[in-house]
Amino acid sequence: MSKVMIKDLGSFMEKKVKVSGWLYNRTSKGKLIFLLIRDGSALVQAIVSRQTLSEEQFNLADKLTQESSLEIMGVVREDNRAVGGYEIEVESLKVFQICDSYPISPKEHGVEFLTFHQHLWIRSQHISSILKIRAEIISAARNFLNSQGFYQVDTPILTPSACEGTSTLFKIDYFGEPAYLAQSGQLYNEANCMALGKVYTFGPTFRAEKSRTKRHLMEFWMLEPEMAFVEQEENMSIQEELICFIVSSVLKKCSNELTTLKRDVSFLKKVQPPFPRLTYSRAVELLREKGFDIKWGDDFGAPQETAISSLHEKPVFITHYPATIKAFYMQPDIDNPELVLCADLIASEGYGEIIGGSQRIHDYNLLKKKINEHNLPEEAYQWYLDLRKYGSVPHSGFGLGLERTVSWICGLSHIRETIAFPRMLDKIYP
Ligand code: 4AD
Ligand code: MG
């Protein structure tokens, strides 16, 4: 007899199978008990009958509480009325544990309560569906990059210097020396792409963001491709292709999860190249027309990004930001050195920035000047400057924020639902 995952039951019609899982719901109707079981892959209804089971086993089934852990053996039957289209006629039952009174019942709970019970809330259909879509996004992104000749190279988490400004660094004590949790793997990836051509890193990144928003986590995962001999135009085309590939993979493989989340996928279906592009300066004009009190040189926050995204049905690139509001390593625009060759990709439906990317400075003297202008300690960046001495080439890359992307694709109202154990401002339990 086969040990089967519920999602695969369709291949075992009229066969005897073993399924292990947890009780999602129980309905007792005299001689019959309906057990709705989840195993992480899907839900299935199992029917326990007094006729098939011993008195003892039947009574045991009748005592099962929500989230009790169990294993059933039985025959798979087709039933169009049942969840998933199948049911199992139980022939024997093994109970691992009868669950204590489970804190999360099907009734509505407040966010405080649910996040305090995060370790249990992840079992809900809602969070499980999001986590499965997250897994598909990661898998699709890797498949895409691997197929395009990228090598995954892992970059360090413990670092001696900042990548994205010094205001959001998590400082730690490294045997008496100050060190920081990585804000981005980019600087190391610039070295890696000079070794391997096209690389990406995918790992956790850390920002001590002191604002409480629906878009910021203190610990989030970033996918960071970096490419030698690639300039900003090509960099954006790769981002476009990557996003389209990810969205189409999720639409293809996660339709059940999107349905569980009640996601309206009409906007996702429109995610096809090319994405609209507008310059920062044009964006400022448009925002002013919409009544925003903003001047050239101000950075955009969530309300501005949402307003820009509402002008388009697809994700939109905002390009050519002023150098003053961007990181030190971005390549100035040759036609106007006040601007840098960068783009933020703003998701559709008001989800804000999902990608930040740019062409990097490849000239030694210019980079050294920028490091000094940004008051960064030059010694700490010596190795980074070296890259501009030994076979320097134009190169570009970007960082895709995984949780922002999950939030957008799943249509969520808060980023805390996009990762199993979110790290929020003043919240680190559980
Ligand atoms: O725009 P950012 O700061 O870019 C970088 O870190 C570059 N070094 C990446 C690169 O070029 N290799 O961050 C990239 C993305 C943002 O677009 C956003 O999606 C996400 O990371 N992000 C966050 N997501 C959740 N919580 C936060 N606090 C985030 N900060 C950035
Ligand atoms: Mg950014």
Supply database-style keywords.
430 residues, alpha+beta, OB fold (Dihydrolipoamide Acetyltransferase, E2P), eight-stranded mixed beta sheet, five-stranded mixed β-barrel, 19 strands, binds 4-amino-1,4-dioxobutan-2-aminium adenosine-5'-monophosphate, binds magnesium ion
Reconstruct the topology from this structure.
Blueprint: E1 2-3, E2 16-29, E3 32-38, E4 43-49, H1 55-63, E5 69-78, E6 86-97, H2 111-116, H3 118-121, H4 125-147, E7 151-152, E8 158-159, E9 171-174, E10 177-181, H5 186-196, E11 198-206, E12 219-228, H6 232-253, H7 255-260, H8 266-269, E13 277-279, H9 280-289, H10 302-309, E14 316-319, E15 332-333, E16 336-340, E17 342-347, E18 352-360, H11 364-373, H12 382-386, E19 395-401, H13 402-410
Parallel strand pairs: 1-2, 4-6, 7-11, 13-14
Antiparallel strand pairs: 2-3, 2-5, 3-4, 5-6, 8-10, 9-10, 11-12, 12-19, 14-17, 15-16, 17-18, 18-19
Helix pairs in contact: 4-6, 4-13
Bound molecules: 4-amino-1,4-dioxobutan-2-aminium adenosine-5'-monophosphate and magnesium ion (MG).
Task: List each distinct ligand once.
Answer: 4-amino-1,4-dioxobutan-2-aminium adenosine-5'-monophosphate, magnesium ion
* Portion of residues within helices: 25-40%
Strands, total number: 19
Please tell me the overall pLDDT.
Answer: 96
State the domain count: 2
Q: Which stretches are low in confidence, meaning pLDDT under 50 for 5 or more residues running?
A: none
Q: What's the architecture of the largest domain, going by CATH?
A: 2-Layer Sandwich
Determine the strand fraction and express it as a percent band. 25-35%
CATH class of the largest domain equals: Alpha Beta
The order of strands across the largest sheet is: 7-11-12-19-18-17-14-13
CATH topology (level 3) name of the largest domain: BirA Bifunctional Protein, domain 2
Separation of the first and last Cα atoms = 39 Å
The major pleated sheet works out as: 8 strands, mixed
